[in-house]
Write a structure and sequence with these properties.
By secondary structure, this protein is mainly alpha-helical. The chain has a domain of about 220 residues. It is built from 19 helices and 2 strands. It has a two-stranded antiparallel sheet. A hairpin with an 8-residue loop joins strand 1 and strand 2. Helix 13 runs antiparallel to helix 15. The longest helix is centred in the middle third of the chain and has 32 residues. The two termini are about 30 Å apart. Belongs to the complex I subunit 2 family. InterPro entries: NADH-Q_OxRdtase_suN/2, ND/Mrp_TM. It holds the Pfam family Proton_antipo_M. NDH-1 is composed of 14 different subunits. Subunits NuoA, H, J, K, L, M, N constitute the membrane sector of the complex. Its main location: membrane.
């Protein structure tokens, strides 16, 4: 029997509260319908409408900034009482929700800027913008979800369009392979998650996260094993979504095969989706089983950051490797750092989740900025090898300085103050929770990360390779040894792109503001979010 069987079920709807994801979904449908009538030469208008829709969705977060609204609530009217009392809500716009929605919608907006030129030249515009906005709507819904059914639906709404986005380069074998790997891994994660959710529901009789937190303490003895298995399977499913080791194998090939803006989107928004779901099911729904998920997440954090950094270290051993592949392995390592405060929440009574959110905000800004510079370089060097960045400062000093700033933030070095402070915050969360061994492993991984981030940064300022000079006399005889072939042509100035340039400027400005005033992000770590 459900806890509301003795009362009246009432669904209250606050339209302003659900406005950000709702507007994003409405604009997605409008773009899809408009694509049928807009002539090919005016398809760029679809991108402008999508970008404006994401900006409007971001603006709708302003009236919700108090973080005290909820909707789709169940209420119980007891027969002995004349008033109703709130029981549980499926959608909550608290501080945690608003910060993650800011990250998600802001990341989608920057992805839209990176995509305006791609859709004009390479990708089908209508399908691309519909899929991007649909995924963003699901990603914005997920942090507000406060029952397992809504959480899983939001997770799939965010994930399913992403499969198609990865494989949207028609006729490209790598794109199709990347989409298949991403699809198979995500479907497996969904199946495991649904199995875990069904076990939890069978043991507790409820799907609301707050109700689960209370009921898991009082599960009958014969259902205890079922409840523990459900908790474990649900965590495994979300570990797939966060690309934690050993569920990370799809990341490098997916990022390389996907269109570059889609890879940027997955690295930030896709990661935010997985970590948000993981936070909700652990800290909000399963706090009574911290003895299960705490040690598991601590081990996953250590393995993930180590595997990501070691693999990234291998990428710089030869400059023929793709810069996108290096960023892909870097994102795996960063996922390990993001897991640390979640694991620490199992060992400490303090709210450690703010440290993950503060780190995620820093990571989103600088990683999207790095991808924006990579997109700019790709306009003149489609191969996007690391060797293509040698001498970038000589041809595009502003882009080189911006990329250096982003890489130093990811490494945690000045002048990237926000990157340094964010790492210190995560490190402190592990120490405060008594996870000294995890803090040591994190420190070692930060040192490993310094090598490949600094090596890429140094490459930007090295002299460009010289091309072989034209002969001044007659050609040499056949017996003479041929001239050496340069390792890579000198970098060419990338064609100007206003949307990509705007994305670089916005992320660089946001990174500079956060470095100058890190309290904007770090106050979440100090005050907590739950």
């Amino acid at each position: 029997m459900t806890p509301f069987a003795s009362g009246t079920l009432v669904q209250s709807v606050d339209w302003l509260t659900i406005a950000p994801p709702t507007l994003t979904a409405v604009v997605a449908l409008a773009v899809l319908v408009a694509d049928l009538f807009v002539p090919p030469e005016r398809k760029r208008l679809l991108g402008l409408v999508a970008t404006a829709g994401l900006a409007a969705a971001l603006a709708l977060l302003i009236p919700l900034r108090a973080g005290d609204r909820a909707t789709f609530c169940l209420t119980v009217q007891a027969q002995a009482q004349a008033h109703t009392q709130s029981a549980a809500c499926s959608y909550t716009a608290d501080r945690f929700t608003l910060v993650v929605q800011l990250l998600v919608l802001g990341g989608a907006l920057l992805t839209a800027l990176l995509s305006l030129d791609e859709t004009r030249a390479k990708l089908p515009a209508g399908e691309f913008w519909f899929l991007l906005l649909s995924s963003a709507a699901g990603a914005a819904l997920l942090p507000a979800s406060r029952d397992l059914a809504t959480l899983v639906v939001a997770l799939e709404v965010a994930s399913l369009p992403a499969f198609a986005l990865v494989g949207l380069k028609r006729g490209d074998r790598m794109s199709g392979e990347a989409a298949l790997k991403f699809f198979l891994s995500s479907v497996t994660a969904t199946a495991v998650t649904l199995l875990g959710v069904s076990f939890v529901y069978a043991a507790t009789g409820t799907l609301h996260l707050t109700e689960l937190a209370a009921r898991l303490d009082d599960v009958p003895g014969q259902l205890q094993t079922l409840a523990e298995a459900g908790v474990a399977l649900t965590l495994v499913g979300f570990a797939f979504k966060t690309a934690a080791v050993p569920f990370h194998f799809w990341v490098p090939d997916t990022y390389v095969g996907a269109p570059l803006p889609v890879a940027a989107y997955l690295s930030v928004v896709g990661k935010a989706v997985g970590f948000t779901g993981l936070i909700l099911v652990t800290v909000v729904a399963f706090p009574s089983h911290a003895d299960i998920w705490g040690p598991a997440l601590a081990v996953l954090a250590a393995l993930t950051m180590t595997a990501g950094n070691v693999a990234a270290l291998r990428q710089v051993s030869t400059r023929a490797w793709s810069a996108v592949r290096l960023l892909a392995w870097s994102s795996v390592a960063q996922a390990g750092y993001l897991l640390v405060p979640i694991a620490a929440a199992a060992y400490s009574s303090d709210d450690q989740i703010g440290a993950t959110v503060a780190y995620a905000l820093m990571y989103a800004v600088v990683n999207l900025g790095a991808f924006a510079v990579v997109a700019l370089v790709a306009r003149s060097h489609p191969g996007n090898r690391l060797s293509d960045y040698r001498g970038l400062y000589a041809t595009s000093p502003a882009a080189a300085l911006a990329l250096a700033f982003f890489l130093l933030n990811l490494a945690g070095l000045p002048p990237g103050i926000i990157g340094l402070f964010a790492k210190v915050t995560v490190f402190s969360a592990a120490v405060d929770a008594g996870l000294g061994w995890l803090a040591v492993i994190m420190g070692l991984n930060v040192v490993i990360g310094l090598y490949y981030y600094l090596r890429w940064t140094a490459l930007l300022f090295r002299p460009a390779p010289e091309t072989a000079p034209a002969p001044e006399t007659a050609p040499a005889p056949q017996a003479e040894a041929p001239a050496a072939v340069p390792e890579s042509p000198a970098p060419r100035r990338a064609p100007a792109s206003l949307p990509v340039t705007a994305a670089i400027v916005l992320t660089a400005a946001a990174g500079a503001v956060l470095s100058g005033y890190p309290q904007l992000a770090l106050r979440f770590a100090a005050a907590g979010l739950f």
